[in-house]
């Protein structure tokens, strides 16, 4: 059996500068592990969805996500907002 390599994609959303979230980092295999490790170190919430990660991985860096992914990414943003409300807002400045 052949195993697929893990994918990881980091998004940033700044409504003052973008119409949609932007892909700011992506990788698979070891690079994906490093992205996840960096997110954990920076206290960035992690959302696990391998299918979505593969779709986002196909996008170019610094590109906004396409409209057909708005729905699922909106769910993720709602997840992050919920976490912020439960546990207090994170220091977003560390992510820029």
Structural overview:
This protein has 96 residues and is α+β, with helices and mostly antiparallel strands. The protein has a single domain (7-95), classed as secretion proteins EscU (name from scop, 3-Layer(aba) Sandwich), CATH 3.40.1690.10. Helices cover 40% and strands 14% of the residues. The chain has helices at 30-41, 50-57, 70-87; strands spanning 7-12, 22-28. The protein has a two-stranded antiparallel sheet with strand order 1-2. The N and C termini lie far apart (40 Å). Residues 91-96 have low confidence and may be disordered.
Tally of alpha and pi helices = 3
The profile of the biggest β sheet is: 2 strands, antiparallel
Provide the low-confidence segments as ranges: 91-96
Based on Cα principal axes, name the global outline. globular
Instruction: Spell out the helices and strands N to C.
Output: EEHHH
Beta strand %: 5-15%
CATH-defined superfamily: secretion proteins EscU
Helix fraction, binned, reads: 25-40%
Please report the total strand number as a whole number: 2
CA radius of gyration is 13 Å
Describe this structure in a few short sentences.
The protein is of the alpha+beta class. 40% of the residues lie in helices and 14% in strands.
């Amino acid at each position: 059996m052949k195993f697929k390599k893990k994918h990881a994609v980091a998004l940033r959303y700044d409504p003052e500068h973008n119409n949609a979230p932007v892909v700011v980092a992506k990788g698979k295999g070891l690079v994906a592990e490093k992205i996840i490790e960096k997110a954990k170190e920076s206290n960035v919430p992690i959302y696990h969805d391998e299918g979505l990660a593969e779709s986002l991985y196909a996008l170019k860096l610094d590109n906004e996500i396409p409209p057909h992914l708005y729905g699922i990414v909106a769910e993720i943003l709602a997840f992050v907002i919920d976490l912020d409300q439960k546990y207090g807002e994170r220091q977003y400045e560390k992510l820029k």
